[in-house]
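INTERNAL AUDIT FORM
Audit reference: QA-55
Scope: verify that the stored structure record matches its stored sequence.
Auditor: D.O.
Record contents follow.
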Amino acid sequence: MKPPRSHGRQSVRATLKPRELMQDVPDYADVWQARIITLFPELFPGVLGASLTGKALNDGLWQLHTHDLRAHGIGKHRNVDDTPAGGGAGMVLRADVVGPAIEEAQSHARGRWPILYMSPRGRPFTQSMARDLATCTGVTMLCGRFEGVDERVLAHYNVTEVSLGDFVMTGGELAAQAMIDATVRLLPGVLGNAESTVEESHSSGLLEHPQYTRPATWEGHDIPSVLMSGNHGEIAKWRQAQAQELTQTRRPDLWARYKKP
């Protein structure tokens, strides 16, 4: 378990952020952090401020900070983008805007602290990636807009591009929140029962087995009798068989990886 929030050195910076959970937040040396570079800081914490992630944020089990790209904009109007070199539709986020924002975010980094860019051309985000992020000290997430980010920034800062799936969104904020949610729930103390993550989908390479609860009979459908038997050995066998069948049927790609010697 993480030590109390009073443990360790801290530096307090007065900030003006939306939502009470993000106001006047001190940095704690032992707490996992997410730093978000975005044109829309008002979108955070968003869903991360609710349920278990919100409670954990309020309890100091993790921290969230936003860095406004507009603050690094160029000129009187704080321009953050320009037309694509070589022509084409849309606009591209400028290197001389994104670069300083990354520098600002990374000035707080310590230990293993990757920089991720939410991008439809990135590597697919997986449960194993969430587990890996949970072992880091923190993460910086760059939320793109328009046609993307100047490629030189990604190369210069060794940014890893990550995707939620084979589709395109208007911006990276929702993707960032989804990835943070998947990561934060794996941090010590966030879930009331740590065993909740053991048998869930993707943790063992399989989809999770079906779940049931009371009433025993609903609309003519009964809970499988094996689950009511009290025989934990048989229950474990049933759940494993169900997980394998579901994975083989619904996700043959996962099944092939699971069965690979």
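Auditor finding: record pair retrieved intact. The helical segments are 51-58, 95-106, 127-134, 151-156, 173-184, 232-250, 252-259.
Action required: none
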